[in-house]
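#lab-general

N.A. 3:47 PM
ok so I finally got the sequence cleaned up, no stray characters, all 245 residues accounted for. can someone with queue access submit it? mine expired

B.Y. 3:52 PM
send it over

N.A. 3:53 PM
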Amino acid sequence: MARFPRIPDLLTTANLTCGAASLLLSSQGQLTIACWLVFLAAVFDVFDGLAARALGGGSELGKQLDSLADLVSFGVAPAFALWTHMQGSAPGGMAWAAAAACWLCIASAWRLAKFNVDTRQGTGFLGLPTPANGMCWASLLLIAAGNGVPGHSPASALRAGTAALLSTPWAVAAAALLLGVLMLSELPLPSLKFKHGGWKGNEVIFLLIAGGAVLLPLFGLIAVPLLLILYLLSPFWGKCFPKPL
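B.Y. 4:20 PM
back already:
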């Protein structure tokens, strides 16, 4: 008898659809919409987890489907958008661009496969989550194009720096190498799931939310890579808060 898809599986499928559509649009040079679809995929990725927990937990099929969708939406789609962008901005460095794009796909696949079999990641992450990597690259591409960036001087300077980075092939390859290594690392990072409604034990999550509430109005999409840096440093500044008993 055929199994009727559960709501979390349908939301995961919506995530996958966004990733596939992003790839198709990137192939046509529609990078702005392609990158925004990566963020829409992230919204569905959040809600499929919420739905799974609300319905008593996810299924094994849903777990595998989620990883496959994340590979497309946050691994392959951003990497292909990056490759497409660099064809126009740095046509002389396509070997570096190809290496960066391939490495991001490989690291994403290994990261997701590792997560599925690593029982240590039930309450937190070891290594940078693939969705965070995908949204970082999507935001960088949008920032370089001037999308979602305020017009004041600090934001304009950061936008110019991002555009310079994405037009320098070896720098793109170095950034991709760093983020790929972080995905495969053992760096302990919070899962950003609230343990309860109180402050104690959720300090890191609350402070990241507060950081986003401040940075987003000030810097627009530039807040995404800034928050990623703050998140990656959370194992260090998070030690300021005692662990709950």
